[in-house]
Design goal:
The complex is a heterodimer. By secondary structure, chain A is mostly helical. Chain A is built from five helices and three strands; from the N terminus they run H-E-H-E-H-H-E-H. Chain A has a three-stranded antiparallel beta sheet with strand order 2-1-3. In chain A, helix 2 crosses helix 4. The radius of gyration of chain A is 24 Å and the shape is elongated. Chain B is an alpha+beta fold. Among the domains of chain B are: 96 residues; 150 residues, 2-Layer Sandwich (Heat Shock Protein 90). In chain B, helix 2 runs antiparallel to helix 3, helix 4 packs across helix 5 and helix 6 runs parallel beside helix 7. In chain B, 28% of the residues are buried. The chains are: A mainly alpha, B alpha+beta. At the A-B interface, helix 1, helix 2, strand 2, helix 3 and helix 4 of A face helix 2, helix 3, strand 1 and helix 4 of B.
């Protein structure tokens, strides 16, 4: 079959291709699951649902310790980010994961107002 | 008497008779010669015919060999290109993983896999190169690899898994053979039905059972399948019919060469065909360990892109501050995750504060055994209380520092959970 040295032209690509891992699902909506959406494993009574793929199991493991952003979860795997998003969305649909929108960034205080207050304080005490 | 002899008529008659006898004798001789000639010719003809058949056969053989050689090398080129393209696609998927292009890249990847499989099948029939050497892989992953090589992979469902791996030399052939089975199963059943795969351990090894809900096979098809899978080996690409049917021929060749068994002679519970692929123990290994070293191409892009998509606005969840008082207590359900394949540590939210030094008897990473808690010495207790005090003090100090800032973004760095 393979004479020596014949098969060294390329390193083999991944055995399981990404579209099989996503099972051909579409990318989820940006609102539904963005990079900074927080995900965590849904509370389960002790036992892991059977018939999850190894990737799904692994993502659940990563998410089981608390809320993590989608970007962070993807960073812990070797999978492309979009693939992780698709699988996370599927897990969420299956009820294995809970998501919540990212905490909105606190608004910066109005600089002018602060300056005015400072000036006022200076006038009063300084 | 003289009266008779004198009769010229008699003489004439006599002469005629003699001539007739002569003629007859000559004819006899001639016909004998002719007969001999005919039989000689006939022999010669048989000889010629025999030679002709022989030379036609050998010519055909030569032509077949030539076709095989040409196809083999052509397929090798195509297989190499498909493999190269697959690698490029992997890189692209990593690179553009965040973009909507990913969807299209996955489609292209799928098409490419099918194309590679076709080339492989023809190569197998021509006695050619099967592809690159693979690592040991789990049976489940090999099945999924096969699933990815057919057009209607979405219709395939894997219902069970086993904890076995397939030895590296058998990974590719088993995946290819199973892909051909799945291709048949999906092609000969209606597009809205599911093809089920069950993987089970049996005394002889592991079986992969493929059930389709098609119309099944008629007797003629069944006989052909049986022949191709047991005795008859297709050599070259002749005799595959028109349109050519590669599947079973490829499976037959592969199963003989690599020592697994395939049968398609039973009916599935859904009325279609049940195909069974039996992997003997010789081809099985333990479950492959998860690779600790990522493939050479992978780590750089992955590692480089991770910090980027985790920007500052990533805020600490509101529930976080509640963890503060419990920080000195070992986390209740601390699981040791270690690090990922990329060497990144896996973060656990409920880990103890980094500023508190762990005591010797009960390291905070692991849940303390109840016995150890009971027999704590006074010194240890004091050390723990001290640590708790230091912890709360530093926590208060941090909060004071933070007073000007918005507290909710305090933990915004990717290691923000340290400060819970």
């Amino acid at each position: 079959m393979r004479a020596g040295g014949e098969d060294l032209e390329f390193e083999p690509a991944d055995l399981v291709r990404a579209y099989v891992i996503t099972k051909g699902r579409e990318l989820p909506d940006e609102q539904q699951l963005s990079l900074i959406t927080l995900v965590t494993a849904a509370p389960q009574d002790g036992r892991r649902p059977a018939r999850l793929t190894p990737e799904e199991q692994r993502l659940l493991d990563i998410c089981s310790a608390g809320y993590l952003s989608v970007a962070e979860v993807a960073g812990h795997t070797r999978l492309p980010l979009g693939v992780v998003r698709i699988v996370l969305a599927a897990l969420t649909e299956g009820g294995h994961l809970m998501t919540r929108p990212p905490v909105p960034r606190a608004r910066n205080a109005d600089k002018d107002l602060l300056e005015e207050v400072l000036n006022g304080l200076h006038r009063k005490f300084g | 008497m003289t009266k008779y002899t004198a009769n010229p008529l008699l003489w004439v008659l006599f002469l005629v008779l003699a001539a007739a006898v002569l003629v007859v004798v000559r004819q006899r001789k001639a016909s004998a010669a002719l007969r001999q000639e005919i039989s000689g010719l006939r022999e010669h003809y048989t000889d010629l015919e025999h030679h002709y058949t022989q030379s036609v056969a050998s010519a055909q053989e030569q032509a077949d060999e030539a076709t095989k050689t040409v196809l083999k090398s052509a397929m090798r080129t195509l297989q190499g290109l498909a493999a190269e393209q697959q690698l490029i696609l992997s890189r692209l998927q990593d690179k553009y993983g965040e973009s909507v292009i990913l969807q299209d890249l996955l489609e292209v990847d799928h098409t490419n896999s099918q194309f590679g499989r076709r080339a492989q099948s023809i190569a197998v029939l021509c006695g050619g190169w099967l592809g690159r050497h693979r690592d040991v892989a789990s049976v489940y992953d090999v099945v999924r690899s096969a699933q990815g090589r057919i057009r209607h992979y979405r219709r395939v469902e894997i219902l069970s898994q086993v904890d076995f791996g397939i030895s590296s030399r058998a990974v590719e052939p088993v995946a290819l053979a199973l892909a051909e089975l799945l291709d048949n199963a999906t092609s000969y059943s209606s597009p809205d039905t599911v093809v089920e795969i069950n993987i089970r351990t049996v005394p002889k090894g592991v079986v992969i059972v493929v059930d389709d809900a098609g119309v099944g096979m008629n007797d003629e098809e069944r006989a052909r399948a049986e022949r191709l899978l047991t005795t008859e080996r297709v050599n070259g690409v002749g005799g595959l019919g028109n349109p050519p049917q590669f599947g079973l021929a490829v499976i037959g060749v592969l199963s003989e060469r690599f020592g697994f068994e395939v049968s398609v002679d039973s009916a599935s519970p859904y009325g279609g065909v049940r195909s069974v692929l039996l992997l003997p123990h010789e081809l099985l290994t333990g479950m492959p360990e998860r690779r600790t070293q990522p493939p050479a191409a992978a780590p750089a892009p992955v590692a480089a892109q991770v910090p980027a998509p985790a920007p500052a606005p990533l805020a600490r969840p509101a529930a976080q501050p509640a963890a503060l008082p419990s920080a000195a207590v070992p986390p209740p359900a601390a699981e040791s995750y270690g690090s990922t394949e990329d060497g990144l540590p896996i973060r656990r939210r409920k880990r103890p504060m980094a500023i508190v030094p762990p005591t010797e008897s009960a390291p905070y990473g692991a849940p303390a055994a109840p016995a150890a808690t009971a027999s704590r010495s006074g010194e240890q207790t004091a050390a723990m209380l001290g640590a708790f005090q230091r912890g709360t003090r530093s926590g208060r100090a941090t909060q004071r520092d933070d007073a000007n800032q918005t507290t909710s973004t305090r933990g915004a760095s990717s290691e923000g959970h340290e400060f819970s």
